[in-house]
Design goal:
This is FHA domain-containing protein. Keywords: Phosphoprotein. By secondary structure, this protein is an all-beta fold. 0% of the residues lie in helices and 24% in strands. The protein contains no helices and twelve strands. Strands 1-5-4-6-7-10 form a six-stranded mixed beta sheet, with no helix packed on it. Strands 3-2-12-11-8-9 form a six-stranded antiparallel beta sheet, with no helix packed on it.
């Protein structure tokens, strides 16, 4: 017969192990399960469904696209040598959109992308921009929303964020986004994400 705790051989009739002092009826104690103390406000989501609004949006295109731009706390300052006049349109006739954040950042939308505290593209996804905004209170999810351009319009899509996305269009009705659905957003709209917000210009 062997000790159930340390495995040492026990003499016949022994009540305690001579090596570890354990009772012959004792069993090995399993170490306690350690729970990961780190919190997470973002979950991995399945690929989002096709747009649920009227209109056609571009299909995913992974061919040769690079990831991407991350903006932490400083606004993008255009290079004066390559700056366009304020009333000029980019190539293709598309108008430029800028996002002015409550934290002071100003970002020019240059295609599609993700926005949040630490946005991360999921496997198989590719984006032109990743925009990280400052949020000490962590009310904004790591990957809070997705955005993109369709012709001359900007659309937004909540990526199942913890605190949701609320839009306040100029002269319109305030509404909360349904996660996973794309919404066209007009200039002058204020978009609230947790304790932060940005204005679409």
């Amino acid at each position: 017969m062997n000790c159930r705790v340390c495995g040492s051989e026990l003499p016949e009739g022994a009540l305690f192990c001579g090596e570890c002092g354990s009772s012959v009826t004792a069993t090995r104690v399993r170490p306690p399960v350690v729970v990961d103390p780190r919190t997470s406000d973002t979950t991995i989501v399945e690929p989002l469904p096709k747009p649920a609004v009227v209109g056609r949006f571009p299909a995913a295109d992974d061919g040769g696209r690079q990831a991407v731009v991350s903006v932490e706390s400083a606004p993008i300052v255009p290079d004066p040598a390559h700056a366009m006049p304020a009333d000029a349109e980019p190539a293709g006739g598309h108008h430029t959109f800028t996002l002015s954040f409550s934290t002071g950042e100003i970002v020019t939308v240059r295609g599609d992308g993700l926005l949040g505290r630490r946005p991360i593209a999921q496997p198989g996804e590719s984006f032109d921009q990743l925009i990280a905004i400052t949020d000490p209170g962590r009310s904004v999810s790591k990957t809070h929303l997705e955005f993109g351009l369709e012709g001359d319009e900007l659309w937004l899509c909540d990526r199942y964020s913890g605190n949701g996305t609320i839009v306040r269009p100029p002269g319109g009705v305030t509404r909360q986004f349904e996660p996973g659905r794309r919404y066209r957003v007009a200039r002058g709209t204020r978009v609230e994400i947790g304790d932060q917000y940005f204005d679409v210009n």
